[in-house]
Amino acid sequence: MVKKQDRYREAGVDIDLADRLVDRILPMAHATYRKGVVGDIGGFGGLFSPRMAGYRDPVLVSGTDGVGTKLKIAQTIGKHDTVGIDLVAMCANDVVTCGAEPLFFLDYFATGKLDINVGQQVIKGIADGCRMAGCALIGGETAEMPGFYAPGEYDLAGFVVGAVERKKILDASKTKPGDVLIGIASSGLHSNGFSLVRKVFVEERGYSYKSRLKGLKTPLGLELLKPTRIYVKTVLEMTRRFKIRGVAHITGGGITENTPRVFPKGLSALIKRNSWKPQPIFKILQQEGGVNEAGMYRTFNMGIGLIMVVSRADAQGAVKLLKRKGERVYIIGEVVKDSSGPQVIYDPPLE
């Protein structure tokens, strides 16, 4: 006979297992703490004081995102320790485009049946990402939902809050013709377009994630799971040193859709496509999937994970500093007048 207190476990939800996971991840969360954290994980809400973090007139900037179907690859090959970095990156890179410093992060981890070892790997990646972004992991939710997710499946969502002093918010209205576009390299595909990636490589071409494709240094699965770059500390240092007009995080929508989001009306981005060389995975994907150039640039980052708009006077100094910091960086174009803008004008044009 099942004890009354065990009926929830019988239904597929093990509260004791979730408590054990919390015990494992607490040290990881504590390792991300920074000035401003108030209290500890375990309450109904995470507490943070911008004043304790050194802000006088802070404007809060929030962001939320997920990892998308890239998670299916992690679940298939059993590698779960990097998708948490992707999760933080997708959120933190967005808020830093305003000039905001990410302050704290919360995660939502949902699964059909909790595997404590998988959960620990996922949260480890989230904590690693938080340290890279300089924000504190101050809370989250683990939801065990039997019958909702298939065995071995889970989903992730992340939520970040950052702050920027009001007078230091990046102002795209100051952008003017002749300003320079600096592209900072991505690590690869990052976390967008994976429904197409999986369709091309697995469904259509029949590759396994262990396949070794010509031009790739690692098996296909490991190439696809390279975590999204976190640009937070780089961008914040650049805003302190140079006149940064705007910052575009190149996510879903690719270069084509994301770059114009930081441009005022009447201006466009003239991008020289030969000024950098995308990583091999992009060419392989384009050839294997029969994707035209316009589709590639509207779906993927094409090797550029972040674009900064800087004054022409600051461009060379900005590039030198970025290179000293170990970034692969390129001057990829400039701001031009365009009555129909904002948009991206490619040179040479896309086919």
List the helices and strands and how they pair.
Elements: H1 7-10, H2 15-30, E1 37-38, E2 47-48, E3 58-66, H3 70-77, H4 83-96, E4 101-111, H5 116-133, E5 136-144, E6 154-165, E7 180-185, H6 194-204, H7 220-224, H8 232-241, E8 244-249, H9 254-258, E9 267-272, H10 280-289, H11 293-299, E10 304-310, H12 312-324, E11 329-337, E12 344-347
Parallel strand pairs: 4-5, 9-12
Antiparallel strand pairs: 1-2, 3-6, 4-6, 7-10, 7-11, 8-10, 9-11
Helix pairs in contact: 2-5, 4-5
Characterization of the model:
With 351 residues, the protein is α+β, with helices and mostly antiparallel strands. It folds into two domains: 4-168, PurM-like, N-terminal domain (60s Ribosomal Protein L30, Chain: A), CATH 3.30.1330; 172-347, PurM-like C-terminal domain (Phosphoribosyl-aminoimidazole Synthetase, Chain A, domain 2, Alpha-Beta Complex). Helices cover 34% and strands 24% of the residues. The protein contains twelve helices and twelve strands. It has helices at residues 7-10, 15-30, 70-77, 83-96, 116-133, 194-204, 220-224, 232-241, 254-258, 280-289, 293-299, 312-324; strands spanning 37-38, 47-48, 58-66, 101-111, 136-144, 154-165, 180-185, 244-249, 267-272, 304-310, 329-337, 344-347. The strands form three sheets. Strands 8-10-7-11-9-12 form a six-stranded mixed β-sheet. A four-stranded mixed β-sheet has the order 3-6-4-5, with helices on one face. The protein has a two-stranded antiparallel sheet with strand order 1-2. Helix 5 links the parallel strand 4 (101-111) and strand 5 (136-144). It is globular. The termini are far apart.
